[in-house]
User: Fold these one by one.
Assistant:
Number 1:
Amino acid sequence: MADKGNAVIGQSGGPTAVINQSLVGVIEELKKQGKVDRILGARHGVRGIIQSDFITLNDVPTDLLERIALTPSSALGSTRDKPDEAYCQKIFESFKKHAVEYFFYIGGNDSADTARIISEMAVKSGYPLRVYHVPKTIDNDLRTTDHCPGYGSAGRFVALALMGDDLDNRSLKGVKIDVIMGRDAGWLTAASALARHDEGDGPHLIYVPEVDFSDDKFLADIDRVYSKLGRCVVAVSEGIRYKAGDRHSLVTEKVVSGGEVDAHGNKQLSGTGALGDFLSDLVKSKLGAPLQEKTGSKLRVRADTFGYLQRSFPTIVSPSDAHEARLCGRKAVEYALAAPEGLASGSVAMKRISETPYKIETFPTALANVARQTKSLDSAFVINGCDIGAGFVKYAKPLVGELFRPGKL
Amino acid sequence: MADKGNAVIGQSGGPTAVINQSLVGVIEELKKQGKVDRILGARHGVRGIIQSDFITLNDVPTDLLERIALTPSSALGSTRDKPDEAYCQKIFESFKKHAVEYFFYIGGNDSADTARIISEMAVKSGYPLRVYHVPKTIDNDLRTTDHCPGYGSAGRFVALALMGDDLDNRSLKGVKIDVIMGRDAGWLTAASALARHDEGDGPHLIYVPEVDFSDDKFLADIDRVYSKLGRCVVAVSEGIRYKAGDRHSLVTEKVVSGGEVDAHGNKQLSGTGALGDFLSDLVKSKLGAPLQEKTGSKLRVRADTFGYLQRSFPTIVSPSDAHEARLCGRKAVEYALAAPEGLASGSVAMKRISETPYKIETFPTALANVARQTKSLDSAFVINGCDIGAGFVKYAKPLVGELFRPGKL
């Protein structure tokens, strides 16, 4: 069977609620096509490859695979390692040793870059390796594709969370600030706009990293909404940034001195409530007295940071997201096995071919089109620097799926 | 119709995911019995009563009522006002003015106390008022009743959140700390134990307010779990407290200087990430270096504070909780209208009459049995001061309902 070669699957970066759908998609398509011998799952991404920490996936029972597909987070384990030259050399040694000819890497733009480096090294060294990246990110910030598997379910969580939180803030009125994941792009924060059904529904203000943040405008916006409605729900991206001259700096940097930086040079934004608390204190200190004078009652200000729940909360997955994540896994195998037709290595992307009914098709694209770069939120979606418009809602609604519609008195 | 008298319904305190089930239960039973004239909803609890801010509920369409029943948070609005003598006098004036003879107040122990004060003033002044408290709290800390409507759904959120978070932390390993609501009682934090299915599943450590907190024990516990598993998920109540001599002090008090206090003298614990960040920094500073030396890799420590999502997130309600919240609303009407049989005023409580199948029945109890006091988590449920045992799981499982079972490789 050695003439068939083996396949390795890895998962990388921050998990999502549907990353295992892609994993199961790769496995089932590989089994269906029958052109590879062993299907090896690398534990914790590239780290598992260099440590030869593999699990054979050929014989995992179908019912367990289906349960895994419904389970959030990366079933194989993930990693934030960013392979350099020496690291990649070790990966090749492992691939050669294990007769690996197909590598499927499920991840974001950092992972696509890792896949690109490995595929280029393979080409250079004449090693017959086909590398396919399967897109995954709750941030929705990959280029080329219409959207990313993982985004719809995270967006669904955010929309439902904001819907519940707005109901909560109607009940006990105040200013409520919710901090949402998304280091460089505001896609996930923008999904909070889907929480709105009726006039007056929150979030009333939405701040994304694509718009320069200003404490003064933030305070003026809240003052305006609160003075009108007596309540205000605010969705804020963890990645909001100030601009001074030509330089952007994360608001979080002002708040957290020191702080952690990962192997990709990314500063830790999640897993801390610091930004929410800073914004909350800002509102209390600057608007507390004037709004109390204006309304006659004490200003109640609270902040929540949604944190890892956004990517890992079980049972509220978007149906289209689950379907597409699976599809992208299957298509990666189809494209890889089709070589020399098409691209020997690449990434799976999605194109929207119909709005009503919503319909997508996939296509292969070069790894370089996805690697490293990020796709910002379309600035046409942003209104007055503090809200998200109907264009975005039209774009995102089918990705997030039908949402609960609250009843109000 | 004036001989029939009118009824007022109010909702108070922190909302829950099923508090509107109780509201709809009261409305439907009042309509069914046909013994009151107008059914008035007080906007924002007692505040709506003194401001004569009522909405007539007799003619709200059934399909809207059913949608409201499924909607989290208090549809009538809530309040944290705690009526004193003068405030209660105003309530009576309003009740007299509006010919109110029945008052149904859906809330926690503070609300039960409000109900008690009002009912006692009514008795004293000879005003023919029947006051029934309908229990509601995510904290599950009311006396007399087996458990409280609202708790099961919040517990379901917490259990699912911890399940997802443990999967996340298996994928990218580290120490993860989750801060859970519950000012005085650890019931909600304990519900995190329901997230566990298999050996090695988190949360691995659970800290409740009923056990004195110690930084040193906390660190030793985490060190032990992390050294064994290479990962550690910790559930911590926002209400954990130190003991020095005879005095208890909230850990949060050490972290947040100043801080807000509400009308009930309660310190603000939710809506801030300060406690999680404090604990996270503590672990990083004390265990970072030794654990890095022991394991060879950098210790990753994150904290999330679940905040208001625990009580307001839509669509993941516990079925038994929804059913019982509705039932308690209906029974409050039944008990109130039965007078002079039984208690003219009181609170609805639940008794567990069978474990398999799980079954409860309701009974009326005096307001004084519920007012003000809190019911702590049974200390027999706590293991070694840092975990929750099988006794609790048996108690809480039917309240939270069947949970998703993750698939793992």
Note: The domain at 2-149+316-369 of chain A is CATH 3.40.50.450 (Rossmann fold).
Number 2:
Amino acid sequence: MPASPIRRLVPFAEAAKQNGTTVFHLNIGQPDIATAPAFWEGVASHKDKVLPYSHSAGLVQYRQAYADQLNRKGYGLTAEDVLISIGGSEALVMTMMACFDSGDEVLIPEPFYANYNGFAAMGGVLVRPFTTTIEEQFALPELDAVEAAIGPRTKALMICNPNNPTGTLYSKSELEALAEICLRHDLFLIADEVYREFVYDGREHFSILGLNGLEQHAVVVESTSKIYSACGARIGALITKNTELMATALKYAQARLSPPTLEQMGAMSALLHTGSSYFDEVRAEYVSRRNLMVQALNAMPGVTCPLPGGAFYAVARLPIADSDDFCHWMLEHHRHDGATIMMAPATGFYATPRLGSDEVRLAYVLEKANLTRAMECLATGLVAYNS
Amino acid sequence: MPASPIRRLVPFAEAAKQNGTTVFHLNIGQPDIATAPAFWEGVASHKDKVLPYSHSAGLVQYRQAYADQLNRKGYGLTAEDVLISIGGSEALVMTMMACFDSGDEVLIPEPFYANYNGFAAMGGVLVRPFTTTIEEQFALPELDAVEAAIGPRTKALMICNPNNPTGTLYSKSELEALAEICLRHDLFLIADEVYREFVYDGREHFSILGLNGLEQHAVVVESTSKIYSACGARIGALITKNTELMATALKYAQARLSPPTLEQMGAMSALLHTGSSYFDEVRAEYVSRRNLMVQALNAMPGVTCPLPGGAFYAVARLPIADSDDFCHWMLEHHRHDGATIMMAPATGFYATPRLGSDEVRLAYVLEKANLTRAMECLATGLVAYNS
């Protein structure tokens, strides 16, 4: 089991705080955006004196409401196609357990969310990466390159859309091309769509649930925690029309009895009663943070950062040779205006050794005043580190 | 991955309910006891507008309070010895992942909690049972028999105390004997102590945390959800002084980011502010339910049920040959006063084939009026089934 590379730096951040230093956390997707108000109303609506288990697949009403909402896009889901999980994380673990036998392989474009390594390890699944590059703005490579990576033990292709860590938003035609490969080679297409509400510049998120002919191959992971800025709620969902796969996932769900009931009440209320104006505001806020951060980054000598189309992350290339060392050094040695910043070295997001050693992932989850200070801190840090 | 045998009967119970039949659920440990009031106060005390992740190992304050409370018994734990898990279930999964390599074996007295099979399967761990019998009131067998079952791949001995499904409470001297075996063969002793507060007749629960010399071998699983009758809260704990083991468990905890934050607030408040009078009342209620049920069972012709010393389960031998068939038949065909009962066939709690085919597990989690009706239903059902 690999250690989470994002969290490996935690002790150094804790030490900095104990010395009175402000640490700007650009390393983790914990936004300061207020949780959708309807979430709290849902929690408060629980009046029973007993807090019972829910159905292992989640509260029946909630699953129905979930399917109904997704069906506005014409997916034709039933409540049985939706399994409420303990955060997107558990849905990913269940996917790894249910889609694969031990020793099977999953193809993933790198850089990818580092915890995929841990989830794959839990299921005995081997990760085979294919590389996307900052020069190409992390677009998917030519499909020949993807197809060449498929071996006899390959069981699935997995993407994150919009992407963590790069923020890349894949288009419908890119997804259709991947789907064609999956159908040709009988692979599952697993899509981590936890950031689906966070897409910018007038573009729309296209879910693989909308791909015709892919019904038996499509597996989608969602996260209420992310959508409604309630990270601590640990409510997510696994969605598939493949009933055999769902039956296997349900066995894992039954073994752990139930997702958190009270937070499902909150999540159901958030789903039913959060209007589009909430998301308009949240998106506008993220866009202005993104623009501020990406502009500041590209203004630093030797720094490159493509403009992300979604999620709340960006990967930047820095004029450094060892991002692990640099992120560690910033926490231990660099102070600007009483503060330092914590970033995620990009090495942890690549499976291929040495890739990402001059890149970091930055989450634009802080309000603009703090983000401005964080960028100043990074700019001065780069100068000091390189002199 | 095996299906949960307790939940396999769920569709038949659902069908009965849809036909207007009352179903008394003696099949699952979902008590109707009110959640400790302090839990709700803790939930309400969350005033921040954002519901954030907690530390992956749980809220720091909560872990400290947890250790402090256990230390009243002189265990000498630090907050770092306590990892807050998503229910006792997740602590068991983490234990299976952290204590074993794929292909290793765990020794467990049977009958045992059926979901141990699923957790073991997730970790690639093989379950080797040693049998306890209803004739011996499910006491542990002679230690020679336990020791004889140890093989080269055996890495741990695992018990549930008080026991689910039998309600057996193991004494200090029994635990000392097991500890001696573990030390002699360098095995972990894993104790599922989720029912530790539910012990009756003036006896006290003795935790393996109190065994001298076992510090590096003892792994304890607890469940706030069980202790404070908040099953839906999904808050549990993994406790060990073995720092290497805890470091491995923490990696799994980090991959799934955080246990539910809001329900940790409730659990911490329940821990800090629930007085002994709450438990006195709960225990008195369970004792009177237990006595009612066990007396009613032993009054039925051909039925044997030892008096459980703890938890809220009992295993009864019935005058039947196929408990799966009988439990299914009761749900589908037997009605008494507009009601039927759902029980757990004991076959699911034994790893040895065919054992438990004349036994069922009954949870005395219903108020006495309903329990009385349930026992009448069982008595008439046995007569009808056998005629």
Note: Residues 190 and 286 of chain B are 26 Å apart (CA to CA).
